[in-house]
Amino acid sequence: MGVEGCTKCIKYLLFVFNFIFWLAGGIILGVALWLRHDSQTTNILYLQLGDKQAPNTFYVGIYILIAVGAVMMFVGFLGCYGAIQESQCLLGTFFTCLVILFACEVAAGIWGFVNKDQIAKDVKQFYDQAFQQALMADSETNNGKAVVKTFHETLDCCGPDNTIGAITPLWRDDLCSKQDFLLKNPGEYPNCHKKIDELFSGKLYLIGIAAIVVAVIMIFEMILSMVLCCGIRNSSVY
């Protein structure tokens, strides 16, 4: 015997929310794959300075997002099917998966908040080391110059900060030769440290908005799934 009245409305409302949740999972998966293969982050985070690899903290977060998006699509499908079939077992499994997924999202959010500044800091330190090697060492014995040029061309910047640029103007023509406007305006050029901050803060901002939207949807779904499960249980008694 199927549910009736308000419980039936909750059933279809839960189906709609789960369909939105499934779509959100697909969007997160797509955004994560885009971030993973974005030319700016890929060009920078695949660099290697001698035996040292560029920091991979950002990619760890991306892989977590890919896993979360895939799981969300599976859980969304499970919730849709459980609501239509009015299965207490499937709805109970769906609720359990939501609780686990919500806990993982909170943990990932805390991890991201703690490490949001560290990601850019590690990349800036990696850039500074390459920059120093490009200035002081022979380019034939290290790839510092190649690493620095990749940063400059990818982020459209030049040098770690304006102070160093004003003190040592001679390196610009060698490492930023494609940016002629820098030679015309010696004291006014894009700061690579600032560009690195903008690169990662912008992407983390996008991830944060998606996470908040998904968390709100998950809370509504947990409430609706429990109400529907209780409604199915009560309707089966009569």
From TrEMBL:
Keywords of this entry: Adaptive immunity, Cell membrane, Disulfide bond, Immunity, Lipid-binding, Membrane, Transmembrane, Transmembrane helix
SS bond partners: 158-176
Single GO BP term: adaptive immune response
CDD domains in UniProt: CD81_like_LEL
Molecular-function annotations in GO: lipid binding
Keyword Transferase in record: no
Segments traversing the membrane: 12-35, 56-84, 90-114, 204-228
Cellular component GO terms, alphabetical: basolateral plasma membrane
Source organism, top-level taxon: Eukaryota
Topology class, membrane: Multi-pass membrane protein
Family: Belongs to the tetraspanin (TM4SF) family.
Protein name as annotated: Tetraspanin
Protein's organism: Geococcyx californianus (Greater roadrunner)
Gene field: Cd81
